[in-house]
Amino acid sequence: MLPFAALEYAGFISVMPAAIILAGLAGGTTYFLVKIARNYGISDKRIILFVLAILFGTFAWTNLTFGGAWQIALGFSMFAQTAAIYFTFIVPRPFVAGCFFAIAFGNRTEVLLTAPIFIHFITDNPNSFDAHRLFNHPRTYINHLVKNRKRIAAFCVIPFILGVATLSYNYARFGSFLDFGYSRIPGVLAEPWYNHGIFSIYYIPRQIWEMLFKPWEFRPSFYLPVPNGFSSSILISSPFLLLAFRRGSVFPLRKGAAWLAIALMTFVLWMHGNSGGWQFGYRYWMSCLPWVFLILLESAPAKISKPEKALIFWSILINLYATWLFHWTDYLRI
Description:
Layout: H1 2-9, H2 18-38, H3 44-56, H4 60-64, H5 69-90, H6 94-107, H7 115-121, H8 131-136, H9 138-147, H10 149-174, H11 204-213, H12 234-237, H13 252-270, H14 289-299, H15 306-328
Helix pairs in contact: 2-3, 2-5, 3-15, 5-6, 6-10, 13-14
C-alpha cells in the first residue's frame, strides 16, 4: 500500500484506487492459474472452468469487491501464493518464488507455515520424498538440504529480510518483537469471541462450525435464503470444493503438499477467535484457494463430466447471488 499512499501524499490521487488494485490482482492471479494449469496438459475448456470456479465460484469474488484493507491484503496473499507455487512447482526460480512468498506471508501471516513445503520443493529433486529416509536417516536429508543451500538461501533471503523488518518494527512501536499490535486495537479483547485471547484452541469447534457447516437463513423481508453476513459454510457457497476430494493424482507428492499447506493454515485460522467480521463465506480461507486449485488439477479426470459442470456452474450462480446481496441490497442488514 505504501506506493499508493505516497501518490496520495504527493497529490496525484485523492482516494485509494481499490478497484484498480483488485483488478490487477485478479488479472495476475488468473495469469498464474492458467500457467500452472498448462503444465498438466489439460484442455482449454477445463482450464477455463477451473479458473472461473476459483475466481467467481468462491467467496473471493464477493469479499474482494468490498475493496477494504483487509480484503486487499487477502487478495495480495492469494495472488502471491499462486505466483510462488508457479515459480516453485512449475518453473523453479527460487529467488522469484521467495519474493512472492514474502508478499504472501507479509499480507497473511499464517502463510509462513508453508515455508518448509516451498523449501523442500525448490531443491534439485522436488517431486520425490522418502519419508523412511527422513525419519530413519535424517542426516541424509540434512545433507541434501546443505547441498542445495544456495537455492534455499535464494528463496529465503527476501522473506528473512521482511521478517526481521517486521520484528524490528514491532519492537520499535510496541517494545516487543512478538507484539504485532492486534490485541492493542481499542476494545478488541472485550469482544465476546475473544474471551480466551486472540488465539486459542477453545475456538476450534466454533470456527469449524462457522467455516464448514453454518447454514443460510430466511429473513422476514425476503423470500429467498440468504447467508449470514458474518460467516457461512464454504461448502454451501462453493459446492465445487467437494471435487478436491476426488482420488488420484498426477504428482502424488505435490498433491500431498497442497493438502498439508491447507491443513496447516486452516488449523491456525480455526484458532482465531473471530471468523472475519462482515463477509461472505469464510474470507480468511482465501489464502488456501491457490492450493485447492493445485489439488483440482492433480485429480482432474480426462473428461469433464456433467456433475462437475453442474457443481461449478451452481457455485458461480451462488456467488453471483451473494455479490448482488452484499453490494446492491439491504436484505442482509435487516
